[in-house]
Amino acid sequence: MNKGNIIQFIKFGLVGVSNTLVNYVVYVIFIALGAHYVIANTMGFLISVLNAYFWGSRFVFKEDETREKRVWWQVLLKTYASYALGFVINTILLALWIDVLNIGQYFGFVGGIIAYFSGIFTFLPKEMTHTELSEIVGPVLNMFVTVPINFVINKFWAYRQKNKTDDAKV
């Protein structure tokens, strides 16, 4: 990786933190409202990808004026499509963490931390079941898989710009 790609990956990571926060906050709000984790995950996905598109276009994958101009709605659709793979992986992993492994049973200390802060986050229950804890911890574990995948797909497909001369060669 050259220096430009490393800086771009760091910027993508910074934007990814905001995407993750948006996604996670929306997810937890829907979970707290009693939504199934798949519905909560879908709502978090839809809203966070809008955030990803906005900041990705302006901060990470800036348009190169020497190359062909991007069409905003095509980039938005490609952004949704590129994150869709991560969404599918995320949903499958959530089912694994929650329904198959019930991963929350291995994170008792996290439940204690959540209980401690539940005065601040009044929408969280004081005592959480293992399944409820799995629903909270699962998305955090998924980030280690989906972030690198999303970067590669966005960089080389969604935000790719053609050279102005590419069409002339055809």
Keywords:
0% strand, single chain, mainly alpha, 170 residues, elongated
Describe the structure.
The protein is mainly alpha-helical and 170 residues long. It has one domain (3-161). Helices cover 74% and strands 0% of the residues. It contains six helices and no strands. It has helices at 3-32, 37-60, 72-100, 108-117, 130-158, 166-169. It is elongated. It starts with a helix and ends with a helix.
Write the layout of secondary structure elements.
Elements: H1 3-32, H2 37-60, H3 72-100, H4 108-117, H5 130-158, H6 166-169
Helix pairs in contact: 1-2, 1-5, 2-3, 3-5
The fraction of residues assigned to DSSP E strands is under 5%
| Rg on CA atoms, Å | 19 Å
Main sheet characteristics: none
Anisotropy-based shape: elongated
Secondary-structure element series: HHHHHH
How far the N terminus sits from the C terminus, by CA atoms, comes to: 30 Å
The helix fraction, in percent, is over 70%
Could you say which structural class the secondary elements and strand pairing correspond to?
mainly alpha
User: Please, what is the average pLDDT?
Assistant: 81
Number of helices: 6
Number of domains: 1
- The number of distinct β-strands equals 0
Low-confidence stretches: none
